[in-house]
Each structure stands twice: as C-alpha cells, then as structure tokens.
Amino acid sequence: MKARKRLGVGLLAAMLAIGATACGSNEKNTEKSATPSGAGESSAPASEPSSTKKVKITYSMWGSAEEGKTVQETADKFNASQDRIEVEVVAIPWESYMTKLNTQATGGQLPDTGMLKEDGVIQWSSEGMLNDVSAMYEGSDSKPLDSLAYKYQGNTVAYAAANEILLLYYNKDMFDKANVPYPPSVLDQAWTWEDFVDTAKKLTIDKNGKHPGEDGFDSQSIVQYGASVENLPWQLETWAISNGGAFYNDDGTAVRIGEDASVEAIQKVADLYLKEHVAPLSVGQTDDGIQRTVIAGTVAMATNGQWNVGTSLNTAKEQGLNYGVAVLPYMKEKVTLNTGGANVVFSQTKHPEEAMEWLKWYTSEENNWGLISSGIWMPVLEKWYTDETLTRKWVENPNFPPYDEYKSAVVDYAQSSAARPASWFYTNHTTEFNTLLGSILGDVWTGKTTAADAISNNLEALKAAHSGNQ
C-alpha cells in the first residue's frame, strides 16, 4: 500500500490511506482474504439464472500488475457469484495514477469505478466527476458508520473502504514500573489534557532518575519520555477541534485555523517538548510515530492511528512489547478523527447501479477479512460495532489487545459522538493546505517561533491554499 508516501507529506492516513494514511486503499486487500468462520461466503446478492449478457464494468486501482492480478482474482469470485455483472480490474502504478485518471477524464474514458485518494474526492465531486452513492446500501441490514461518508453539498459521493481512528497507545510495563495507572479505555473516563501532561511527567526520566519539575531535572539528558503526540497536519486538527477551534468550518468552505482556540491547541502540542519536557522533538514529516516511540521503547505513550496494530504492533508484541490502547485525552471536548481511503463511482459510467453493487461486495468485511483480522483495517458497516457476535468475531483474536480494552477504546470509541470525520471527507484542497501547514509549523516545533506568529503570518496563504489558489 502506498499510504506511507502520502503520509510523509502530511496526507493520510491510514495506510490508507490506509495508508493512511494513512489508512485505506484496497490494493492488497486480497492477500489475506480468507473468509472468517461463520461470517458468510459473500455479500453479493443471489441472482436467478439469466440468458442476458453480463454488464462489463472496469475497476481502477493503484498498484503493480501483480497486485492487479491479485485483485482480479477476487473480482473473479464476484463475477462467478452472479450472472449480471463482470468486473475487469485495471492496475495503474501509484506514481502515475492520478495523471492517468485525469487524462481519461478529459477523454471521457474513465473506468466505471475505482480508488481515489482521500484528498481528491471532494475536488472530483465539485467538478461533477463522481456519482452520488447514497443509495448503495438501501435495503441492506447495515450501512457504513455516518462518519465514513464523503459528502459534497449534502450528498454522499463515496464511502470509505475501511475505517481508522486515532488512539492513545502505551507501554504497560513502563506504567507498571512507575506505579502509574493506565490511561482510560472508556470515553467517559478520558483524561483531560492536564491529566495527560501530569501523567507524562511521572513517566519522563532523565539519566539521574529525575522527573520534570523536580530539583536537578536535566531536560538535555532524558532517557525516557512520557508522551508523544503525532503532529502530522491532518492529525493535529484533532486538538484544534478538541480545544473548541478547527481547521475549517462544518462544511469545509472556510478556514478556521487562525482562531485563538486552534492556535492555542497547536502550541500546547509543541509545548510538550518545548515547555513541559515530556515529549521528544518531532518535526511532523514522517508517519512512523509509533515505531519511533512506543515500539522503540523510548516513550511511554503516543497517539496515532489504529492501523498501527496490524502494521507494526503485532510484530512488536511477538518480540515482547506489552502495549495497551486507550482513548485520547481532551482539551475541552472529547474528539478523535476517523479516516479511510475512498472507492468511488465515476459519473462517466453507464452502469452506476452495477458499479455500486460491485463496490458493496468488494468492500464487505468478508472480502477484506485478512486486513481486518490482522488489525490493519477496521470494518465500515455499523453492525460490526453494535452486534456483539460480530464484534467478538472481529476482536477476539491474538492480534488485538484484550477484548474489553480494545472494544471500549476502539470499537465503542469509533461509533461515539467523539468520532469526527477527517477534513478530507468534506473539504477541498486539503493536500495543498496540509502541505503548507506542515511547512510553516516546522519552526514552531523547534521553538524558533510560536504557533500564533507562524499561523498569523501565513494565514492568507493558508486561505489561498484552501481555495485552490495557492
């Protein structure tokens, strides 16, 4: 998956996209696609035999020819499951994917359906290039969580292919050694920001065993940090919203990052290193925060996306890491962001209903089970969060922390009022905005300037980036 490249410049998520971010592409979603026991063979609807010729549709994805072949094998299962639709998979290298789609769009030759970068969905919608998919789940026993719908002018123009949320990870052995209570996994018991900082001080140790605030503490010789907050631009918005601000207004049409509450939140994150001395320096350029902190054994707790369970923490656990998951602390309001890469139906298709039927089948949990059971993806359908039988089928496996802990800190958290969609679900030009924001905040993390000065001096440029006029 290619999310690593995108997250490195402040995009997502989810390995995504997952990418993520990064977060949620489908390019490898058949590598471990075994059906979970009792979960059903397929979500494709049964069809009566028909003498009519199958409707042929194309599905584009970014990936190598070999990856495309793997996805085609999954599509062949769908093709064989009914006699109405035949899907052909077209794999395009990541480096040329959007260039190729733009060329096809100009020539009126777009595929019927395919993957689209998170940050491109609203732009393509604004240009009339995507179909409304609000009807995709009509008549189904469950639909995706509301926070996973990409919306433009009130219409759902895509659903995320997978779910991801931001969490707090922590090293249980470090907490036990310091005799400090674990972070709460229950939302109602979430720490305030002050609780979080105070706990981080108890877990931050210099070479002489001193903690911040104690006489003789040496901030230049810290051997263990108490906390790390991921400061990639898209994740930073969590704290702006939590503090009563935001990067954008509710429909993504105006910039709010210049508000005092937004600026204050960013400065609080910077001050974990600059003032509180509980976090290592991070310049916010790479999406390897969990590897650099909790897994490296240098930091007691760190924020980042759920996808880390499958991408790195399972291996670390096998090597002896005793980690836990908790809900994020909050400043004024309890907030976590969710994300997930998009599968879309292009408006040039002559077969939108067939395209939606394929996507609904392809993105079903049964057909992505390897990614879900390993902890890389989370389900999109609401029933996996509300039906205990399905939740246990998902979570009760050795790849996850203990059931009650993970269910509370992840499953319940993801469907709570705290879960908000990342801004690319409803805002245009987030790539340009996040890239610029990441650049101007570089000197904030090192203390060369303040968040207030950095943002105020560049606010008009940020607004221009948001409007696409950078």
Automatic annotation (TrEMBL):
Residues 25-51 are annotated as: Disordered. It comes from the Bacteria. InterPro entries: Bact_solute-bd_prot1 (IPR050490), SBP (IPR006059). Residues 33-51 have a biased composition (Low complexity). Pfam families: SBP_bac_8. Residues 1-22 form the signal peptide. Gene3D superfamilies: Periplasmic binding protein-like II (3.40.190.10). Keywords: Signal. PANTHER family: ARABINOSE-BINDING PROTEIN-RELATED, DIACETYLCHITOBIOSE BINDING PROTEIN DASA. This is ABC transporter substrate-binding protein. The lineage of its organism: Bacteria, Bacillati, Bacillota, Bacilli, Bacillales.
